[in-house]
Amino acid sequence: MKIQNKIALLFTLLSASIIVALSIFVYIFATESIRSSFYHRLEVRGDIIGHAVLEENESRKPIYYDIKKRHLGDLPIERHKVLLSSVDIKEKAKLPLPDDFYEDLLKNNEARFISSDTSYVGRTIVNDDKKIIVISSAVDLYGLAEMENLKNLLVIGFLIAFVFIFTFGKIFSDAIFKPIRRIIRNVKGINAHNLHQRLVIDNSDDDIEDLSRTFNDMLDRLEVTFEIQNNFVSNASHEFKTPLTVISGEAELGLSVPELPENVRQSFTNIYKESEKLEHLTNSMLSLAQTGFDGKKEEWGWLRIDELILSVKEAADKISAENKVSINFDHLPENEEMLVVNGNKVLLKAAFTNIVLNSCKYSDNKPVEIIISSDQQYAIVEIVDEGIGIPDREIGQIFVPFFRASNTERYKGYGIGLPLAHNIIRMHQGKVDVQSKVDTGTRFKTFLPFK
Predict the structure, then answer these.
(1) Are residues 426 and 352 both part of a single domain?
(2) Fewer Cβ atoms within 10 A, N terminus or C terminus of the chain?
């Protein structure tokens, strides 16, 4: 998830949590207020009933009931139970009330309790030397309706607020990350061919300006480093090419001499093979160096991966004639466009040739199979050998220049071929997956995006 969306989501969740907490507080406070008000109304009615019972003058008793009816009215499902004695009050009341209610009533002369929707209040009423206990109950239908309406209002308000908060959060995060997205667009346009480009810096005196300046400083250092490295490799490769051609030609000329002693012929043969290998490596380095910063020397185009692998097989046959490399076409996709990739043919050929020759060398020319296939995004080339394998602890370092595995002492090499191949594949927006087991073999699986 992008940071912009994370910020919008966190802002929304934080604000929503605050609103939920506030809504719960309002609901609880309102519920307690409504319940307390209803308890008071029920207590007033219980007091009137109690005083009516305690009134000795029978002619005055109807006055209490008349006042209650005229000025207070009846509550929904209103009931009153009058107990003349506090002895065995629980048995006499016969109400679904807990023991705590009766204990509070006897101790504090009043008690309150709510069971389901029914509210209960108990009061001890004293008049002169007479004392009675009145337990009143009723259902606060209007209060329940108010609480239900309040709950619905809070839920609807929360949903509406949630939508507004998320919308404003997106707008807020979009505005905050606008300069960062501009930096990302500019950075995506910078590569090895246009390292001279720089980010546009606004005099905003903020962290974005510091980030842009820091990135431009890094590009300055990278540009200098790339130019030095590119010039060195280009010049060194050119300087190597001429003497290698001379060595190869002299060795080939020596081999053409008739009646040459066998030991001398073997020496010329070794010189010729090693010069071919070194020339191959030099050409690969030269090709890589020719991907200059201006892009004028680079020849990119659409090419079929199966045709490229055929040319790799031909190159391997020339360098190592005793190889047992085979190409498996059984998994080719029906759609030929899934085999067409955009790239530099010379570089890709060098990359795959390096991997194939490595497989041949470290398997002592045991069978090496090249499998061509594809998925929904990549053209896939698998190179499977039956060689010495790579130790698990070292497999993550095989693409480090000049690194050689601990079990390769008896094989000649410099640790350049695989790093060079890996860099070329990455240059083509591809990736390499390596699976290996010691004394069993290695599987190099390369992925190149097709058009």
Answers:
(1) yes
(2) N
